[in-house]
Amino acid sequence: MSASREKNTRKESVLTKNTQELRSRQDANKDRSFYIKCIAAVVALAVVFVLCFLYSNDSIRKNMTAVTVDGEKFTATDLNYYYYTSLDQYGSYLTYFGADPSQDLDAVEYADGQSWGDYFRDSAVLLLTQTVTMYNQAMTDGYEISDELQQEIDDYSASIDSYCESNAMTREQFLTSRYGANMTDEIFMRHLTMSFVASDYMDHYRQTHEYTEEEMEAYYEEHPEEINLASYEVLTVNADYSGIEGVTEGSTDEEPTYTEAQTEQAMDAAKETANAFLDRVDAGESLADIAAEYGENYYSKKTDASYASYTDYTFNDWVFNESRVPGEASVVIDEAKNCWYVVVLDHCERPEYNTVDVRHILIQPLDSGLTEGEDGYEEAEALNNAQAETRAQDILDEYLAGEHTAEAFGALADEYSADTDAGEGGLYTQVYKGQMLDAFENWCFDPVRQAGDTGIVETSSGYHVMYFQGEDLPYWQVRCIDGLYTQWQDDIFNGATVKRHPLGIQAAGGVRQ
Question: Are residues 235 and 339 in the same domain?
Fold first, then answer.
């Protein structure tokens, strides 16, 4: 063999060897890749198996972490306390949306692909987060549960025992039937206590914290639209489709649909009408008189309205703009509602008048059991009203015969009043205009009213024995304090570090057993 052939043979041998090694490596890589894929598939199946096991085992699901608040973990069972509390408070409203709170809410759509079950789970997460955060803040501030609050907690707990005794069930049966199978008395009492403490701490802060004049003025300067109140008139001029033929699907009862160009044409027509009305206002004619001609149901007069009351209407921003002056009028478009507004501003300013503190004793007439139109209805109503008025006068006479003090009147209110909304001793503090029924309010804000004044007022609720305790803060300051208090709450709530755990959250809720 020649040297060249031997060299070539060695070269081919080397190439063959390298090729074999390369193929061996490729085969080995293929084997490893195959094994890796097999392992991944097994792991994936194991994960699926574990998830299926978790979701088939309700006890395990309910103990999964649902929410972490500032590093503290809360399970789906913890979340259930707030889920079913929210459901008990607001579940009755579900019937207005065609949902039954006793059924599976996960099967009923709420909005945007979300079920009512999802809605109440989100509400529960928010409520748990706020309760825990405020409770922790209370503990940080050195809050201690008072004897009175502890008694309230104990009384609430005792009411459950009384219910269980009356219905031949154990406390455990009650808790699991109301809050889910994993609810224990320890978990329930923990969250019940935190809820009471958080609420009491917020109330205590609201009642005792004093804001300075400088703080209130600064808040007003930053949020004038939130504090100011406005009085104005509005006439709505809807898009005018007269002479424009829309499209229906054949039924004469159906509302026609219009093209974008047709709607634009109708809005142009409405604008002409609105501007014509504005010209008449500028010429001295009242908007109310124009409305009587155009249609009184399109007219409204707002007195001391807040910005928050009409945020869905475009005229709101015009009214509360700082550049407005009393008596100014304009037209404002609302493309979302396909209309124009003719707006006449009376004033927009911060309410300087003083709020008042007043006590009352409500005496309600007896129910005759008859309905309007039945024989004897009017006579029975007149008799019951007369008896209620006499009773109110007797109570006032009892007060006048004793000590003429707020405390003495309050004691009578605690004994006789049918009003469960008033504070202790029948007291309402910082009453503002528009809060109460007209006759009640007119008595309170009568310019001649003096501290210690008494009287009897009749409203649709019954007869009110009145006691005027005195004036309180200017209403604009009350509104600033409300805003500052809300700001304080938000700062605490937003300062929490919250982590949601979707699997745990989804495990909360469900149909009560």
Answer: yes
Which letter does DSSP use for residue 235 in this model?
E
Answer yes or no: are the C-beta atoms of 397 and 361 closer than 8 Å: no
- The half-sphere exposure of 410 on its side-chain side, counting CA atoms within 13 A, is 12
Residue 76 shares a structural domain with residue 42? no
| In a domain? residue 165 | yes
Residue 432 counted as domain residue: yes
- Residue 403 sits in which domain range? 354-474
* Residues 394 and 465 placed together within one structural domain of the fold: yes
Where do the H-state alpha helices sit in 355-434? 377-400, 406-416
Report the domain count for the chain.
4
Pairing state between β 462-474 and 109-111: unpaired
Question: Which of 325, 349, 373 is at the close of a domain?
Answer: 349
- Single-letter amino acid code for the residue at 344: V
Q: Are residues 310 and 400 in the same domain?
A: no
Residues 305 and 186 grouped into a single domain: no
Q: Where are the extended beta strands (E) located within 257-338?
A: 299-306, 329-334
Q: Which pLDDT tens digits describe the chain residue by residue (513 residues)?
A: 444 444 444 444 444 455 555 555 555 555 566 556 555 555 555 555 555 555 555 566 668 999 999 999 999 999 999 999 999 999 889 988 888 988 999 999 999 899 999 999 999 999 999 999 999 999 999 999 999 999 999 999 999 999 999 999 999 999 999 999 999 999 999 999 999 999 999 999 999 999 999 999 999 999 999 999 999 999 999 999 999 988 877 656 678 899 999 999 999 999 999 999 999 999 999 999 999 999 999 999 999 999 999 999 999 999 999 999 999 999 999 999 999 999 999 999 999 999 999 999 999 999 988 888 888 899 999 999 999 999 999 999 999 999 999 999 999 999 999 999 998 999 999 999 999 999 999 999 999 999 999 999 999 999 999 999 999 999 999 999 999 999 999 999 999 999 999 999 999 999 887
